[in-house]
Amino acid sequence: MEKKKHAPVFAIADYCNTKEIRSIKISSFQEEACTIAEIEEGHRQNYYEIVWLKKGSGNHVIDTIDYPYAGSVLFMLSPGQLHRIFPKEKAEGFVIKFLPSLFSDSKDMDDYLIKTGLFDNIQTEPVIKLTASVHAVLDDVLNKMETEFNANEEDKEKIMLAYLKILITHISRLKKINTSQELTTTDVNFSVFQKYKREVEKKFRTEHSVQAYAEALSIQPRTLNSLSKKYTAKTAGDIIADRIILEAKRELSYNSKSIKEIGYELGFDDPAYFTRFFKKQTGISPQEFKATEHLSSVRKTAVG
């Protein structure tokens, strides 16, 4: 059996390299040279990404999970996610890619990228179906963004950032289903929990202890556990385990590394313990998951 290659990691300037790109770019699917990467192969990226498929149908595989789509849908992707689109019909829509450095104000970055929860790749599903009214609003904003991106004008990134904020605000408004969700953005405890999740994102490869994270946040482990259950119905330990498993699945599904290597990179010195941990969380061993994903990938590629 042929070994899988490493999934490529794209930078924001890859593709469309004839255009000046620093912190943000937007392309319609009509510009195939700029968007072919979404369809060509499974990949990861070092930027945030909003994919709007205006119509058509297909399957978007994100972190080994199938997200069949039809009609007008958005996909919200954060850096590091493994994904590929398998369209049944030619895609129409836009792809917006941006770096967190676009937000010069750290509070702005926190408000739009963290507090909205739109780019939470652990607790939030990455797909959002659009209503007809929101479809029209997004169409207007994204066409203006594309015009600005293609213009040879000074300070265009400032204008594109303003449009991006409008875009994220509309999407966030759509995502909020009830008042309790809206209140969490001003809840002090929710802010502490978000800090915990950011710490987990930074340290999950080397730190697996709830106690250590609680100490870093200057709170008690039981308090951290209560906050986690309040906002996700999961324990603080579950949050850590979910993040480890997500990364393990990414590595196992598109990588030539051994299971021992993957476990070691995720903080497990004992391969047997990593295997037991993985099976406890998923119900199957890493070996079984890897074999299943390989067969699934072959089938999807053949169909695509």
TrEMBL record:
PROSITE patterns per UniProt: HTH_ARAC_FAMILY_2
Transcription regulation found in the keyword field: yes
Keywords associated with the record: DNA-binding, Transcription, Transcription regulation
Presence of keyword Ribonucleoprotein: no
Signal sequence interval, chain numbering: none
GO MF entries: DNA-binding transcription factor activity; sequence-specific DNA binding
Source superkingdom: Bacteria
Residue ranges constituting the HTH araC/xylS-type domain according to the UniProt record: 194-292
A Pfam family: HTH_18
Name of the protein in question: AraC-like DNA-binding protein
Species of origin: Lacibacter cauensis
